[in-house]
Amino acid sequence: MKKSYILIALVVLLAGAGVVSELATFMDGRLAYESPQAIDHEAPTPRELALQEQAAEATKEAQEQPYVEEKYREFPVIGSRVAVWMAAQLHLLFAAFVLAVPIFALIIELIGYKTGDKRYDDLAYEFTKLLSTAFSFTATLGALLTFLLIALYPHFMNYLMHVFSPTFLPYVLLFFLEAVFLYSYYYGWHAFSKRVHLCLGLGLNLVGTAIMFIANAWLTFMMTPAGVAASGARISTWEAVTNYTWMPINIHRMIANVAFGGSVAAAYAAFQFLKAKTPEERAHYDWMGYIGNFVAIAALLPLPFAGYWLASEIYAFSQTMGLTMMGGAFSWLFIIQAILIGNLFLAANYYLWLGMGRIEGAERFRSYIKYLLIVITGCFLVWATPRSILATVDEVQAMGGSSHPALGFLGVMSAKNTAVNILILTTYISFLLYRRSGRIPTVKWAKAGNAVQFAIFALAATTVLFFGIYGYFVEAAVRIKFSVPQVGSVLAAMILVTVIDIFLLRGAKETETRWGQISNTSQYVLIFLAVTFTWLMGLMGYVRSGLRQHWHVYGVIRDTSPDAFTPTLGFATKVVSVTVLIFFAFLGVVFWLASLGGKHGKPEVAVEALDGGDV
Amino acid sequence: MQIPVPLKVAILTIAATGFYTYVGQLVPQKEVHPPEVVEMSSDLSTADLVEIGEGIMSGKGLCFTCHTVGKSGALRFPDLDGVAIRAGSRRPGYDELTYLAESLYHPDVFIVEGFSAGMPQISKPPIGLTDDEIRAVIAYLQTLGGQATMTMDTVVPFSAAAPDGPLSAASEAVDDGTATGSDEAEVEGAA
Amino acid sequence: MMNLAVVLPVLAVLIGIRFAKPSMLGWVTAWWLAAWVVLDFGFAVPVPKTVVKEFMGIISLALAAYVTSDPQRWREVREPTTAFLTERKFLPLLVLVTLAIPAAVAASIYFDMTAPAQAPIFGRTVHPAPPATLTVHEVTHDMQTLDNPYRKLEASDPAAFAVHVEAGRKIYYENCFYCHGDLMQGGGMFAHALNPIPTNFQDSGTIAMLQESFLFWRVSKGGPGLPEEGGPWMSAMPAWENFLTEEEIWEVILFLYDFTEQRPRALHVASGGEGH
User: Fold this and answer.
1) CA A341 → CA A304, A338, A384, A427, A534, distances in Å?
2) Are residue A247 and residue A272 in the same domain, yes or no?
3) Does residue C125 sit at the B interface (CB-CB below 8 Å)?
4) What's the average model confidence in pLDDT over A50-56?
5) What H or E segment, with its residue span, contains residue A261?
6) Taking a C-beta distance cutoff of 8 angstroms, is the pair A530, A289 a contact?
7) What is the set of domains in chain B, with CATH numbers?
8) Is residue C104's pLDDT more than 60?
9) Min CA distance, A482 vs chain B (Å)?
C-alpha cells in the first residue's frame, strides 16, 4: 500500500514539474529558435514599422476625436431596461416598507399611549425594529437606481434634470431629516417622554410622505406630462409636479404601502411564530401577525377605489393611454391582476376563518363561512373572466366570435365593478364575523342594531347589483358613471356598520381568545399573502411604467433605445418574479439582522396581558 | 424528518412566485414594437395609399384599439363599416374628404350622436401621424363603403399644406368650437 | 343558453347529495365534478378550454380553502385519504391510481401533440358593406335607391313578371347552378373544390336578409369586387357583368327569390348606415 502512495506522489510531482516548466516557457516566449528577434536586433522589420505607424495614428485619432454625448449605454447581458426596472422595483419595495411601517407603528403606539396598554407600545417598537436595516437597504438601492439611470440613460436624465432641478435639493434634505427622525424614533423609544416620542413619529411620517410625493412627481410626469412645451422645454416645474396622475398615485401608493407593509410585517411575525419554541412566543407572534394582517386588509379594501381614480385620471389625460391599458397591449395583464387579487381576498378571508379556531364561541358563525366562500368564489370567477377569450378555431366558430354568448356578459366592466364591490363587502363581513365571534353584545338594542346592520348590507349589495345589471341597458357614457354609486354605497355601508358595531359591542361580554392556538397553515397563509402583495406590486409597477410604451415622457420625449419595445407579458412576469425573489432574499437578511439586535435583553413582551387582546 | 422552517418558507415563496410566473405564460404573448417610420414617396398610387393606410390603422395609428369594422351592438366608439357612405352627408357643407380629415385632425369638433368625445388628435403625439400618413389613412377609410380617390397630390384639409381658402370656414369652426381650439392652432404653428 | 340535459341531472345529483350526506371527501369530489361537468358540457355554446381550466383552478382553490379552514372538515378529508394510501386492502386500487396518473398525463400530451393543425383564424365579415355607388356596363347606380326594375311587375303585371322569372331560371341553370347547386343549397358539382363554399340561398340568413341591390352588386362584381375590409375573401365567384347584361342579372335575382320562396329585404328599412 505504502509503495503505491509513493508511486502516485512521484507521478504527481513529475506531472507538476512538467506543467511548471511548460508554463515557464510559455510565459517567457522568447526561445532563441522561435523568436525572429533573436536573429536580427538591428533593423525593424516592415511589419514592425507598420505596427508603429498604426499605433501612432491611433493615438493621434484618439487625441483628435470630438466629444459626442451618448444618449444610451448598454448594460451587459440583461440590458439597460431590465437593469433599471429591477433596481427601481427593489428600491420601491423597500421604500414602501420603510414608509408604511411608521404609519401603523405610530397608530399602534398611539393606541398604547391612549389605553395605557403596554403591549401595544411593545408591538409598535417591534415593528419599528424592522425599519433601521430596511432604511439603509432603501437608500443603497436608491443610489444604485440613480447611478444606473445616469450611466444608462444619460441623455434622458439630463432632460429630467432640466424639468425637475429645483426638486432635487429638497429631496436630499428631506432624506437627511428622514434619517434623523427614523433613528431618533427607534433609538429614542425609551429615552424620550411619550409625547415627544409620538411627535418624532409624526415628523418621521410627514417627512417620509413628502419624500414619496417628490419622487412620485418625477415618475408621474413621465406618464402624464404637464408644464412643458410640445418640444419638452420647461414652462413650469410646479405644473410638472402637479400633473394629472400625481395626486392619484400619491394616494394610491400611500394606501398600497400600508397594505404591503402590514402584510410583510405579518409575514415576519408568521416566520417567528413558526420558529417559536414556547407558547408565550407563539401567542405573541400570533397576535402580531394578526395585527399586521388586519392593517394589510384594512388598507386593501379601499385600494380598488384609489386604483379606479388613478385609471380614470389616466383616461382623462389620454384616451389612447387608457385604452392601451385596458383594451390594448396590457389588457391581459389585468386578468393576471384579477387572479392575484382574487387570491389575496380568498387568502385573507381564509386566514380570518382559520383564526376563528382560537376564539371560544366562534362555532356559531362557522356555518356562514360556506356562503361567504360561495360569494367570494363567484366574484373571483367573474373578475377573472376574460373579455376576449383565448380559443381554438373550432371554439371560435362555435361561439361565432371571440366572446362567448353567455360568459361574454361577465367579461365587461359592469360585471367586474360589481364583482369587486361585492368582494370587498364580503371580506368586510368576514372580518365583522371574526370580530363578533369573541364578543356577545350586552346593550339592550343589540337585536335592533343587528337588524339595522343587516339592512345596511342588504341595501348596499342591492345597490351594487342594481347598477351592475342596469349598466347593460344603457350607453357607455352613462355606464361609467355607475361606478360612483356602487363604490359610494359600499364605502358608506362599511363606515356605517363599523360605527354601529363600535357602540353595539361597548361593554360586550368577551370570551377568551386563545392566542397562539392556531394551525401552522394560517401562518403560511400570511407568508403567501406577503408574497402575493409583493408580486402584485411588481406587476402593477410594470404596467404603470410600461404604459408609456416607446416614450420616456409620454408624447414628448421618445425612447429611441433598443429597449423601447414593450416585452411580452410572459417576459415581464419573469422579471417581476426574479425581483420578488431577490426582495425576499434581502428581506431575510434584514429580518435576520433585526433578530440579532433583539437577542440580548429581549424585552419580555407582556404576554400575560395577551389574552383577549384585539383591536 | 422535519423540514426546517426557513426552508419551508423559501419553498412557499418560490412556489407562489413560480405559480404567478406560470399564469403570466398562459396569457397571449405579444411584443409591441415602437412604430416604424413609413417611407412615403410622392409617386404612390391610390391603391398603395390604401394599403399603407390599412397598415397604419392597425399598427402605428392604434385605430383598431377602439374602432371596429363591421361590428354592431353595444359600441363604445363608432363602427367604421361604411363610413365613406356617411362621411359626405354627416355635416352640412362638408364633403367626404373634409369630414374624414376633420375627424382625424380635430376629432373633438364633431361627435357622432350617441358617443362621447375622447378620440385624440391623430396628428399630435402620442400617436402623431404625419400629414402623409393621415392621407393614407383617409384613403383606406374611403374604401369602407366607397371608392378611394385619394392621391399624393390631393390637398388634405387641415394638413400643413392646406391653404386658407375654401376651407377656412371649417377651420374657424375649430377655433371657436372648442376651448382648446386656439391652443391647438398655436402648437400646430410651432410644429 | 344552458344545456338543460346536462345541467338538470347535475342539479338533481347535487340535491341528492344534500340528503345522502356523504363524507366530506365525497362531498368535495362531487362538487368539483359537478362544476367541471357544468362548465365543460353544460353550455349550449361550449366554453373554450382555456376558460374551463381557469375557472376550475379557482374552484379547486375555493374548495381547498373550504375544506382546510376547519379542523373537523380537514380531518374528514385527510383520514380517508391517509387510509387509502396506507391500508393494505386498498393496495390494488392504489396501484391502479398510481399508474393512472402518469398514463393520463401521457395521454393528454399525446392528444395535444397529435391534434390536427388548424388554419389561423381570419375575422371574415359575412355581409361586407356595399359601396355607395356602383357602375355596371358604364351606368352608375346609387346603391341607396337602386332596386330591381322588374320587382314592381309582380303586383301590376304578374304575367310579364312570370316571363322574367322564367328567363332568370334559364340564366341560373346555364351559369350559376354549377356552383350554387340545382336546389340552390350551395352544393353544386364544383362546390367541393371551393373555399369559401358557395352561398346557400335556401338559408334564411342569406338573401332574405339583403336588398336586391346588394345581390346586384355581388353578382355583377363577384369575388374580385369584394372590398378589402374583412378579407381575405378568396371567393371564386366571377364578375358576371362580363358575361351577363344588366337585365339578365336582375332576372336571375328574381328567380333566386322565386325559387327559394323568400322575399328581399325592403328598400328603405336598411337604407342608412347610422344603425351600425
Assistant:
1) 10, 5, 10, 12, 12
2) yes
3) yes
4) 92
5) helix A246-275
6) no
7) 41-190 (1.10.760.10)
8) yes
9) 16
